[in-house]
Amino acid sequence: MIKTDLSRRHFIGASAGVVGALTLTTVSEAAAAPAAPAADRVWSKERSTNGWQVLQRAESFRIEGSDHTVRLAGGDAATVLLHVARRFNYEIDSLRSGDVHGWTDHREVAADYESNHLSGTALAIRPLAYPVGSKGNLYPNELIVVRDILTELDGVVAWGGDFTTPKESHFEIAVKPGHPRLKGVARKIRGWEAGPGDEGAGAIDAFDPKRRSAARAFRRRA
Fold first, then answer.
1. Nearest to residue 113, comparing CAs of 72, 73, 169?
2. Is residue 117 within a helix (H) or strand (E), and if so which, with residue range?
3. Who's near 216: CB < 8 A, 6+ residues apart?
4. How far is the C-alpha of 172 from the C-alpha of 188, rounded, in Å?
5. 8 A C-beta contact, residue 81 and residue 153
6. Cβ–Cβ under 8 Å, residues 109 and 87
7. What phi and psi, each to the nearest 5 degrees, are found at residue 89?
8. What pLDDT does 103 receive?
């Protein structure tokens, strides 16, 4: 899919109308004292906290619409996480070198959920900007996109901004390997990728009233 300026222009223009409505919520979130991250410790288990096997190595995947790659577990997990990265790139901000962190073999973690990088089932997008323990860093328009992504993926991906110890750069696979919901969401994404380009990343309006309503309903259920 060829990236155009259309979605970015629409994103910026549409966001102006919602910033005022969401400012109060975002400011109060930012003002709340962040949970202090635990001291780094070594993850010694052979499975990450989401139940996936720790990997000795991981495949490198190109992030569509950018010149960048990320290492992830293959199959459905990669399909879903790459969709998250693409939507960030298209709808929030263009990715730059070093922005996206995937699989690692370094076992030091500041929070248990960071162990999911060891299994290649987590992404951190700009972790230096959005570190463990810090919350309220996203603009209201950016938060709308994140909520839309989570809704679209039907709970298959969890966002670190919702965790007790937050990390707003963190996205992880939230279901076990082979879960039918993971298979279904990955199949949907692959269908978009094989289609004419009018669905999926780069063709989504997260500010559409129906999508925003669905995102609010999903958040209440979750």
1. 169
2. none
3. 147
4. 18
5. no
6. no
7. -60, -45
8. 98
pTM of the model: 0.82
Contacts of 161 (CB under 8 A, 6+ apart): 135, 138, 146, 167, 168, 170
- Beta bridge partners of residue 41, listed in sequence order: 109
- Amino acid identity, residue 151? T
Please give the Cα distance from 59 to 74 (Å, whole number). Answer: 7
Q: What are phi and psi of 8, to 5 degrees?
A: -65, -45
What distance, in Å, lies between the first and last C-alpha atoms of the chain? 32
Q: Which of helix, strand or coil describes residue 159?
A: strand
Q: How many angstroms separate the CA atoms of 121 and 58, rounded? A: 10
Summarize pLDDT for 98-119 with one digit per residue, the tens.
999 999 999 999 999 999 999 9
Cβ-based burial of 190 (10 A; exposed 0-12, middle 13-18, buried ≥19): middle
Please report the DSSP string for 34-67 in residue order: PPPPPPPEE---SB-TTSPBPPS--EEEE-TTSS
